[in-house]
Write a structure and sequence with these properties.
By secondary structure, the chain is mainly β. It has one domain: Neuraminidase (6 Propeller). It has 1 helix and 33 strands. Strands 5, 6, 7, 8, 9 and 10 form a 6-stranded antiparallel beta sheet that branches. It is globular and about 45 Å long. The chain starts with 5 loop residues before the first strand and ends with a strand.
Length: 367
């Protein structure tokens, strides 16, 4: 079954709306309406059958401060045991520790998770940090190479409405920031080596406007580039090693809920729309990752409703080219270890998975 697709926005007429991209096509969705505080704002939720509401926040919220760095507990997990099936997770690689960290996602029972796992040299370990973010909807994470932390952003439902938070992972514990946090659903997040900041591009919850933000490890700052992509959700973004700039592709349009197939580059100060000779078909919720071994960007699958796509592509700095694929996959996430890329989870055309694939620059291998 195709993965959950949604648009989330606050507008002047309907208030906070969570709309299923598949709902209009499948007809298997339910509509819930609830009254918010003050009787002036209504929440309209359209959710497909396989979606459940995220759980509320844990003891750590977006406004709490965690300064301690205790040693984490490691649950006894044999090498080869891996996280359960899930899609829409956060996955980032810490070069300083030569270790990947995985957080959350949506499991086969439609629950949003907040477990933390470490991956190193093919072995998985479930961690039990002292503090943890709440279960997040489609979190995004990236490694800040200067500060040597993983930065993660996500939204969650806290009883009275949607909230957003930013957390950092230092290899031991999750630490919440106290900065003003922009509220964006299903966004791409990537580290920009030019400005040495984490870049977020998304569609604002209020008004659906395209916005670019930068995070310096302490504060978010909204940027004002002269050019930027149209408003969208579920785009892919990662570092283009051929130009040392960020590459953004696709997503769902905020205008007509249709998938996009455009390619953009961020040079640290401005966005530029690229016009490659060859381009992948339009899609959303694809997996995009830098492949150091290949020296290119790799794009895997995604969804063009109602189909989960089974193709894969590489970007050489000028154009896209098809490459071998792991099969139908949406909402998987991948890390670049330097010698290989490692892909985990996501939805196939039949179910949510927890399989692991690696790419060494030449061929795929199932682990």
């Amino acid at each position: 079954m195709p993965a959950f697709r949604y648009l989330l926005r606050l507008d002047t007429t309907l208030g906070l709306a969570l709309d299923s991209h598949d709902a209009a096509k499948s007809g298997d969705c339910r509509r819930l309406t609830a009254l918010l505080i003050g009787a002036a704002l209504w929440v309209t939720v359209v959710a497909c059958e396989r979606v459940s509401s995220p759980q509320g926040p844990s003891d750590q919220t977006a406004t709490s401060v965690r300064t301690s760095s205790p040693s984490p507990s490691v649950l006894p997990v044999a090498c080869g045991t891996r996280p359960g099936p899930r899609g829409g997770l956060a996955f980032a690689y810490m070069n300083n520790l030569e270790q990947g960290v995985l957080f959350g996602g949506q499991d086969s029972n439609n629950r949003y998770l907040n477990d933390t796992w470490a991956w190193k040299a093919g072995c998985w370990s479930q961690l039990a940090p002292l503090h943890s973010p709440p279960p997040l909807v489609a979190p995004a994470a990236t490694y800040d190479t200067v500060r040597k932390i993983v930065v993660m952003y996500g939204i969650y439902y806290q009883g009275s409405g949607w909230a957003a938070g930013t957390w950092s992972w230092n290899g031991l514990d999750w630490v919440a920031t106290t900065t003003v946090v922009p509220v964006f659903p299903a966004l791409p997040l990537a580290y920009d080596p030019n400005s040495q900041r984490v870049i977020l591009f998304g569609e604002s919850l209020v008004g659906g406007l395209p916005q670019t933000w930068a995070f310096d490890g302490n504060q978010w700052q909204q940027l004002s580039p002269s050019t930027q992509p149209t408003h969208r959700q579920q785009a892919g973004m990662t570092l283009d090693p051929t130009t040392n700039s960020l590459l953004l592709f696709g997503g769902i349009s905020g205008d007509n809920n249709q998938e996009l197939g455009d390619t953009w580059s961020w040079n640290g100060t401005n966005w530029t729309k690229l016009n490659p000779a060859t381009s992948p078909p339009s899609r959303a919720n694809a997996t995009m990752v830098t492949s150091s071994s290949l020296g290119r960007v790799v794009l895997i699958g995604g969804e063009h409703a109602p189909s989960v796509l089974a193709d894969a592509w590489t970007w050489d700095g000028q154009t896209w080219s098809p490459m071998s694929s792991i099969g139908p996959r949406e909402g998987a996430r991948a890390i670049d270890t330097g010698s290989q890329i490692v892909v985990f989870g996501g939805w196939t055309d039949k179910q949510v998975s927890n399989d692991v694939w690696s790419w060494n620059g030449t061929a795929w291998a199932s682990e």
